[in-house]
Here is the input.
Amino acid sequence: MNEQKPLRLRKRAEFLAVRSGEKRRGAYFLVEVKAREDQDGPTRVGFTVTKKNGNAVVRNRIKRRLREAVRVNVADDMAAGTDYVIVARPDALKAPFAVLTRELSKRVAKKSMTRRSPKP
Here is the structure.
């Protein structure tokens, strides 16, 4: 478990580096995950909300909801030395907060699985 709160991704190059990692799709967002070289380093998280989601007010509300969901519930599930980028979908604004945090927690905690792997 990661005791420290996740740091933020801020530079475009950091976001682009995560794009080559694993993609975990959900109803309210896409989570891109990529492990870094320094496995003992802090967890980093970035948020992307495109203009397709609405005007600046709507986009900022979505980002605030996602940041709070990460802060309250999901930060402990994030692996150290890993970068996460959360790309929001328009439904993230209207989703109940409990559902949003549960979906985010499920996507973050999910281990690397392929679709072809048999279900137990």
Notes: Confidence is low (pLDDT under 50) at residues 112-120. The radius of gyration is 14 Å. Residues 57 and 100 are 19 Å apart (CA to CA). Strands lie at 7-8, 22-25, 29-35, 44-48, 82-88.
